[in-house]
Amino acid sequence: METYGDLKKAINTISLKQKGAKIGNVALDAVLGAIPGIGTAKSTFDFVKAAFLKPDTKKSNSWLDKLDIDDEMSSIVDDTVENGFLKMIAKTIDSETDTKPLEQDFNMNSKMVTYLKNNYSGRTVSGIKEQKSVFDKFFTKFAYKFDKGYPDMNNTQDVLLLESLLSEVIGEKFSLKETNLSRSQLKKYESRVRKFVQQILDQTPFETVDGEVINVTSLVDGNTEFNLQSDEQEMFDSIFSNQGTLLVKGNIDDKDVTLNSNKLKKTASYGGRGAGSGTKVEDAALADAVFGLNKLNDGKAVDISFNGVIYNDIVTATTVPKTPKADFSFDNSEGERVIYLSHKAGSKARDFQQYGGVTAIANHPEVESFVSAVKENLQDPNQMEPGRGFRRKVEDPELIRKVVYGLDFQSKENYGINNVQGLLQGPLKFTKISKENTDEPIYELSSNHTILNPNLPEGEYEAYFYVTMRRNRNQFGIKDARFGVYTEAFKRNSLEI
């Protein structure tokens, strides 16, 4: 390719997948193999984005390689900024005359740096040192808020408070967390890669760094695509031994998407903030709770209304250690846990994995009956089959309440780590409501979807027993079987028995 006209022709050729065609002197198939996702491009923007996200180790041996950006630079640039930059590049390509020669010194890294400087008040991926004095003033001003006079980055609460304060200063949510699941992040620990593979094969949704939920259907590693029926070990070996970008295919709100794995959020279960505390709480939920409380009344104690009760003197939120039903609590100024909450990600019934496991309720007649029915429907009663899944509605109201609110369930009394006041899904919301005979406000706590103790989940959130295939997991004498209590909407293609 020598001109922008040649580049536009190449884009059209790739879009049409013309057999036997060439991109410059390179066969079309070679280009498609070198640039994951480019074969589905329908516009110049799609084309540029695919080339932009191409792994550094992959080469098409054509001018298209110049549209790639350094993988490390891509990982630190916000998605919104990145999309704005790509739209600018695509518009530039479309507007250039066909006869204009392609620049041989074209450099996407340099163009990104220039774009940042021109659109973000001179800020770019370098040049942070000049802000040192600003940060010195910041920490001097807020030193009293930290026990040590400065934020201890090994202290979860200090980190959350720092994020909250910085968010207030810049006027938007700020996070210090390593937030993504790039290949380099996954490969830091073998166990992390194992969990990643299992989550794909289990069809457990991922949260994106933008707060969306994606149901992954396949993984693309270079020229190899792994689906839900692929071998677990082969997928692991590919991720662990290769370099460059990983792509995941799936759906977000019923729309098919292809994402770089660095767009998947690194939650606490992968070693995000709060790892080591032994808790299953989602990092984002706890951060939102602390952030929300600090924003309500300038960090002062507030009154919170939840499930018909007003709780006074609430100052912070803290994670609940180990693995009880409560993910975190709202605490008063005396350090006492007051409101115990279970939290789930997303906004829909199918966005989170499960209400709970069945180990602690294994002797319940409904569980025993479901297990027996599963064995009767398997070719081999001792082996879960690939692609198979079974479900059954949970009927016992008290059993449902124990699964949703905790094994110590009691209505309206003796709340604790295994008898929570409610289950909240998605971002926490604080709504100001009136308070009689005083000017002090009360804030009502809610979320995208809230289930209040002792209410039963309804509609798509109804409780169902499910069993799915999970390699190396054995329950009730069935190899590769995982049992749990999920929402009705979790996996509707499962056979109801």
In short:
This protein has helices spanning 4-16, 28-34, 44-52, 71-76, 79-95, 108-119, 132-142, 156-170, 183-186, 190-201, 232-241, 283-296, 365-377, 397-405; strands at 22-23, 26-27, 206-207, 213-221, 224-227, 247-252, 255-260, 302-306, 309-319, 328-332, 337-344, 389-393, 422-425, 429-433, 442-446, 449-452, 463-469, 481-487, 495-496. The protein has 497 residues and is an alpha+beta fold. It has 4 domains: 4-119, no CATH class; 129-170; 183-269, no CATH class; 277-496, no CATH class.
Explain how this protein is built.
With 497 residues, the protein is of the alpha+beta class. The protein has four domains: 4-119, no CATH class; 129-170; 183-269, no CATH class; 277-496, no CATH class. Helices cover 31% and strands 20% of the residues. The protein is built from 14 helices and 19 strands. It has helices at 4-16, 28-34, 44-52, 71-76, 79-95, 108-119, 132-142, 156-170, 183-186, 190-201, 232-241, 283-296, 365-377, 397-405, and strands at 22-23, 26-27, 206-207, 213-221, 224-227, 247-252, 255-260, 302-306, 309-319, 328-332, 337-344, 389-393, 422-425, 429-433, 442-446, 449-452, 463-469, 481-487, 495-496. It has an eight-stranded mixed sheet. The longest helix is centred in the N-terminal third of the chain and has 17 residues, at 79-95. The protein is globular, with a radius of gyration of 26 Å. Mean pLDDT is 80; it is low at 122-133 and 273-281.
